[in-house]
């Protein structure tokens, strides 16, 4: 009987220890430097968001948060490294949406599984694409509105082209969604990134493109014209430019986001503690202002961020299927 009681007491003690172990770990988190792994080069918008948040967390948490750029394969090298890291909250992937939502739909061989290998922590900012045309190149570039541009393109199927930042890039998916909704057939021309695509548009090689916020200075200088933005609502940087959804295509909503993820087995209390620390950036007016320069602040927590990832993955899978987009 004594042996039985001793066993039960030990079992209860072990259970109690297990119940408090993870919260205790979260209470002590962090007690060493945190590393942000970014799959893109310094100066990129993803890197910029990472550095803003890293600086805030260094002050907030009292531990250094360093940014480590591991570039290559549209963020896949960085994602692979974080997926294999210790699930303790000290190695964090700062990613764009393509690495998590589009890559698994296009690449047959990947060394990480976004669904199984990561725990979403926080979506930070969401950035719309801007439908741009060259005002020196008619008829699309001189079309007064988005619908006028689409009408001109529809009248001559295949005669006009659009540039993208690469096959399978969100800039291509955005245009293919618009093509499908508007019944338009424009020819896709892929470039090695947004910058070359923008140069091609300004040089008259293509007739239109979905560009990122780097186009804003050129739009304001009159070198490019903005016809619409891809977010559900207008963007604060271009308040006079309509959203595609309000310009006759309700439901159109594509943006690229920057968010934080950790290895899948990271304890939930640690994930939540990190998410709350990131969200606290909104309490600092200077940090908030810097983030607003990068896009629309979202600050979705783990559950809502996971739901957003699932929603976008399903949306992009359907666009890729209908457009028959494939990578060799």
Overall tally of domains: 2
Percentage of residues in helical conformation: 40-55%
Biggest β-sheet, characterized?
6 strands, mixed
- Which ranges are low-confidence, i.e. pLDDT below 50, for 5 or more consecutive residues? 6-22
Helix/strand class = alpha/beta
The backbone outline, from C-alpha atoms, is: globular
The helix/strand order is: HEHEHEHHEEHEHEHEHEEHHEH
> Got a strand count?
11
CATH architecture of the largest domain: 3-Layer(aba) Sandwich
CATH superfamily name of the largest domain?
Bordetella uptake gene, domain 1
Strand order of the largest sheet: 2-1-3-10-4-11
Taking all Cα atoms into account, the compactness measure Rg is: 23 Å
N- to C-terminal separation?
Answer: 70 Å
CATH topology of the largest domain: the name is: D-Maltodextrin-Binding Protein, domain 2
Mean pLDDT: 90
In CATH's first tier, which class of the largest domain applies?
Alpha Beta
- Proportion of residues in β-strands: 15-25%
H/I helix tally: 12
